[in-house]
Amino acid sequence: MSPCNPHARTVRPGDVRKLLVVGCLVLAGCGARAEHAGEAPVAVPPAWSGTATSKVEVPVPQLSPEGKEALTRARRDGADSVVLLLSTAPGATERVAARLRDLGASVEASDATVGYVRASVPLEAVQRATTVDGVSRVDVDEPVDRVEPTP
User: Fold this and answer.
1) What positions does the domain Putative peptidase inhibitor occupy (predicted)?
2) Backbone phi, then psi, for 64, in 5-degree steps?
3) Residue spans per domain, the chain
4) 4, 16, 61, 79: which has the fewest C-beta neighbours closer than 10 Å?
């Protein structure tokens, strides 16, 4: 009995643990009755025919609105190129870097362990750079404003 409420029943820690276990089992469906007796059905995958029946569309990475704005600003300011930061699919970093060089870009840095390429890309090749096979994300590199906060 609780000193504040003489009608209240005290709950022991063991009771709470048992209720918690039972509640988890019910939520997981362990307390449900089996509908059908016998063996569980097994799904059999269809036999491979050797030809693909449909193509999977892989979305082409797009510049963010901020990246598009930075690209517009660079064109307006008369820049010849912009620095792009590209994230690549696993194992595609070197292939992406080579393809960017084919587009006239200068690869400044790359790291295959994390799938990263930093390249200075001519403005007229930026759209083609976003469609290079193996590129998963693209963004325009911009300096970070270092505004000193005033108290």
Assistant:
1) 73-143
2) -70, 165
3) 65-140
4) 4
